[in-house]
Amino acid sequence: MPVGWGTTAAYRPSSRAGYLTRSWPSSESPSPFAAPAEDPMNLPTSAIILGTLVVATTAIAYIGDTVGKRVGKRRVSLFGLRPRHTGVLISVLTGVLILATAVLVMSISSERVRIALFGMEKLRRDESRLRSESRHLNEEAATLRKQRKALESKVAERGAEVATLETQVKDLQTHLGTTESSLKASETRLKTQNKAVADARSMLGDVRGLLTAEKDRLKKIEERLEEKRRELVKANEQVEKVGDVAMRAGADVVRLDADVLALEREKARLEQDVKQLEDFAKPLFEIAKRAREGEVIYEANQVLGAEVIDGEQTEAAIRQQLLSLLNGVGREALKKGARPDKEGERAVQLATKRTGTAESPVYYHESDLLDLVAKDIHQSGDSVVVELWALRNYVAGEQVGSDFVLFPNRLCFHAGDTLVTRKLDPSGDPDAAARKAGLFRDILAALQEVRKVARAKGMRADESGQFGEVGYEQIFALLDRVLAGKRALTFHIVAAAEAWTAGPVKIRFEVEGPASP
């Protein structure tokens, strides 16, 4: 390709950064100024040539001498010369003929002799021209080497800047994701706390209303009791004043005493009800206080833990797995701040259930519930996903009430099933950073769609609410492929392995390109 300065040069791809580099002749290549290579003649050939020269020149000398003698004896004259001068001329011509014969034989047998005799001036001109071109080419090569070094230095600097910018982008994206997650968690926690406070205030208001009503009733009963006492005092006064009505007054006294006793019993019962309501309201006050001051560690219906249990096991083995699940969740709850109500209990307990009628209630405590759940799983004979759910919102310092929820563990996706299909077009925004950010958001939206598909199939999320995970390196590899192609591509999110109800679902990306418009 043309490279300026009125010369042309061959280029070849370099191994560094894809730049073109001048392909200069190596030091081992033959120089245009070097002597021609040795003639491919062996020793016998040289001997033959020398022998031929000796024989030819000897024969010519002999013939010339013989001719000269005869010319001298006969006194022959050539070109009007004297016989003596004619003999000298014949000797000279014989020498010239010998020289011409030697030159002819050497020229035929050796290229170097031909070049030395007939091409020396041309060689000198070529040598001068080639030296001048070599000097120009060397200067050009030095200039190009300097330019190449400068370009390679700039490329290295730009590569370092690009790597730094990509690292910063990844850090910012990670920080943004973390910040968004923290913000969502804080908003959720705030909503939960506000709801817990509102619920506690509502229950507290109801209890206060009941307590006020009971106090009003107690006050009325005390007023009635005081009225009856006054009537009793009046009756006693009447008994003292009116003797003839003593018997009737005595009956009134007995009746009033009975009324007083009944009212005192009613008062005692109401006082007991008030005490029970106050005892019931005390934990509500405590819950409201904790909700205002503390952090909600578990929300209502939150999955505390999960386990896949095979129903073909014995009931005892299934019960042991359920108990292990409870113990493990209890240890995690302790780390989060939950506390048992009594010494020896776990921080997470199965809530007692009540069945039957109001007159004949039947209570199922934790041990009974473990037996019942183990029996149900064993009778199903299938694989079951057992989740432990929180009954309500709980703050630090409380014991967590929980309950088992069962789901059949069925096959949701086969390996190779396509979960979501999307088209990625890198030609939208002219700004490279904005274009990359937009594609990144499109991929994240597709991953969110996978969550919906998995949930619709009946899959269960883990304790953190996730159905699976995918590494950022896969996402960035897909981004690089889309951006490198500069054309729209269709990509599929495919199940990499079988996925069951218990999860997780493992995925991979498959790309088709270019996408149809």
Salient structural properties:
517 residues, single chain, four-stranded mixed sheet, 15 strands, three-stranded antiparallel sheet, alpha+beta
* Main beta-sheet strand count, sense and barrel state: 4 strands, mixed
Spatial sequence of strands, sheet with the most strands: 4-8-10-5
Number of distinct beta strands: 15
Mean pLDDT: 76
Q: What is the helix fraction of residues, given as a range?
A: 55-70%
What would you report as the Rg, rounded to the nearest angstrom?
57 Å
The secondary-structure class comes to: alpha+beta
Strand content: 5-15%
TL;DR?
Helix content is 61%, strand content 14%.
Please specify the SSE layout and strand pairing.
Elements: E1 11-13, E2 20-22, H1 43-74, H2 83-109, H3 111-118, H4 120-241, H5 246-293, E3 296-298, E4 303-310, H6 315-336, E5 348-350, E6 353-356, E7 361-364, H7 366-380, E8 383-390, E9 394-395, E10 400-408, E11 411-413, E12 418-424, H8 432-456, H9 472-485, E13 489-495, E14 499-500, E15 507-512
Parallel strand pairs: 5-10
Antiparallel strand pairs: 1-2, 3-9, 4-8, 6-7, 8-10, 11-14, 12-13, 13-15
Written overview of the protein:
With about 525 residues, the protein is of the alpha+beta class. The chain has four domains: about 70 residues; about 160 residues; about 110 residues, no CATH class; about 100 residues, no CATH class. Helices cover about 60% and strands about 15% of the residues. The protein contains nine helices and 15 strands. The strands form six sheets. It has a four-stranded mixed sheet with strand order 4-8-10-5. β6 and β7 form a beta hairpin. α6 packs across α7 and α8 crosses α9. The longest helix is centred in the middle third of the chain and has 122 residues. The two termini are about 40 Å apart. The N terminus is likely disordered.
